[in-house]
Amino acid sequence: MRKKKNKFEILENIKIEEMVAEGKCLARHNNMVIFVGGVAPGDVVDLRVTRKKKSFMEAVPVAFREYSELRVEPFCQHFGVCGGCKWQHISYETQLHYKQKQVKDNLERIGKVTLPEFDPILGSEKTKYYRNKLEYTFSGNGWLTDEQIKSGEEFDRNALGFHIPGRFDKILDIEHCYLQPAPSNAVRLEVRDYARKHGLDFYNAVKQEGFLRNLIIRTANTGEVMVILQVKYDDQEAILGIMKHLEETFPEITSLQYVVNPKGNETYHDLDVVCYKGLPYIHEEMEGIKFRVGPKSFYQTNADQAYELYKKTRELAALTGNELVYDLYTGAGTIANFVARQSREVIGIEYVPSAIEDAKINSQINDITNTTFYAGDMKDILSDELIARHGRPDVVITDPPRAGMHQDVVEKLLQVHADRIVYVSCNPATQARDLELLSEKYEVTRVQPVDMFPQTHHVENIVLLTAK
Ligand SMILES: C[S@@+](CC[C@H](N)C(=O)[O-])C[C@H]1O[C@@H](n2cnc3c(N)ncnc32)[C@H](O)[C@@H]1O
């Protein structure tokens, strides 16, 4: 049998050059590009090739010969195994440098438009404990690290934590996570230990069996806390046992809920969520504007940086109070409501009907009366009829998902020809693609990267487009 050529070969003494897409680093060997995770620019390493294609290879480090000066000591005991905080081995300053570069490279390479000088990336004051939502998964067959296996010790395999990257069935039990503030860690550990002690059945994702499925914790900037337990079947005695224990142990939980989900997947947007204690929602707040966040609502997961992002978006929109603003991909109407007091009228459009319900509630509870929201696919809702009804927007704010805007939407924006478009994106590659199309009638006048997710390679970017 012919051996697969060069797969798994070891490459020695390779210098890591720089950070590139998806948080990986780039190196070269015999004119071949290699993508490597878990290293830093400046490291010198031995690599094991894991994938070989005609024009590139993928590899993992097996030995370090020299460590880069850009490195810092990782702070988390789960570094290298857990899929979160993959950049914690490089300093925050270096992370910001590479995020800014990622935006610049994408806009120059894909966008092919004339660009102004970029504004320096807005870094996050908090680089740990910045998330307001985490979702932990139960597993009766928790992942053991190589060290744990080698130690020969007995470990309780009932785990509550995060997926091993790329593995739907492997869960890493988490002792301490640095992403969400208190009481997130304490609640997770308490639920895990209670369930272990009472012999409750942790989920098995392969067989799709087991009682305990997942635990969602939301910690709002108002101090309110929501906990949602998701279970496979309706065992009231077991559910109420956990609920009562959490109620007694954590009086700070203001919204304690559970959902019975017998389905094959963990989504529960189509299921009833039962509120055991408190209100069925919590509130986030920005400049005195309250946002109601229910168990099915989307809210930006880094609330402090969301505020910075929205302030910058509003600043670039240059609102004076007289503008008609279209907020495309409005989610729960957060940007729409945030800019409403500085606008004449705001139209928000979003695909998910329940998010639009939240958007309307968010206007009502803040006495905002100049917003109108529509649910549906952007390419259908942003129609000639809608524009005739509300008028040509002075300003468009658009914040599409990672895939960017549908070509029909871009064409509609060219036809509508608002004075300014503020384009917020979590994916500079698709943003760059859309900018090239929009350059027919717009020039890019400001570029402002924002870091919403420290310790990861993700970057948000705001671009101001001004009509030519
Ligand atoms: C990046 S989020 C922006 C949310 C919001 N602007 C915020 O700051 O919270 C993108 C939003 O686009 C919505 N969306 C995705 N595809 C859509 C489509 N084809 N039409 C309308 N909305 C869509 C998603 O449901 C999501 O709420």
Automatic annotation (TrEMBL):
**Active site (record annotation):** C426 (nucleophile), C426
Tell me the InterPro entries matching this sequence: MeTrfase_TrmA_AS, MeTrfase_TrmA_CS, NA-bd_OB-fold, SAM-dependent_MTases_sf, TRAM_dom, U5_MeTrfase_fam
The residues the record assigns to binding S-adenosyl-L-methionine are: Q300, Y329, E350, D399
PROSITE patterns in the cross-refs: SAM_MT_RNA_M5U, TRAM, TRMA_1, TRMA_2
GO BP of this protein: rRNA base methylation
Task: Determine if Methyltransferase is one of this entry's keywords.
Answer: yes
Q: Where is the TRAM domain?
A: 2-63
Which N-terminal stretch is annotated as signal sequence?
none
Alphabetically list the UniProt keywords.
Methyltransferase, S-adenosyl-L-methionine, Transferase
Q: Which Gene3D superfamilies match?
A: 2.40.50.1070, Nucleic acid-binding proteins, Vaccinia Virus protein VP39
Named from the GO MF annotations, one term is: rRNA (uridine-C5-)-methyltransferase activity
Superkingdom is Bacteria
This protein's record includes keyword S-adenosyl-L-methionine: yes
Similarity comment: Belongs to the class I-like SAM-binding methyltransferase superfamily. RNA M5U methyltransferase family.
What's the protein name?
23S rRNA m(5)U-1939 methyltransferase
Organism of provenance: Pontibacter ummariensis
Upper classification of the organism? Bacteria, Pseudomonadati, Bacteroidota, Cytophagia, Cytophagales
